[in-house]
Amino acid sequence: MMLRAISGTRAFPHDPSAxxxxxxxxxxxxxxxxxxxxxxxxxxxxxxxxxxxxxALALADTGMTGVGVLYRPPAxxxxxxxxxxxxxx
Length: 89
Fold this sequence. Notes:
Number of strands: 4
Largest sheet: 4 strands, mixed
Radius of gyration: 23 Å
Helix content: under 10%
Strand content: 5-15%
């Protein structure tokens, strides 16, 4: 994993070790809401939301991290043979 700039002098701006403490929802553990202190969660695929105050936290183990998580590549155009164009003309 490349965490240094090309020049090698500065740290990569998105270096995970430089971000500090992150609040995340950990499935299978007792998670208390940082907003209200309760522990009733509505868990989705990417985040969990407190059922009382609606504070949202990212899931710790989604298996989907990085840029382009929700990116869907465009569909490839359909190729037609020259014979199909001749028939249509």
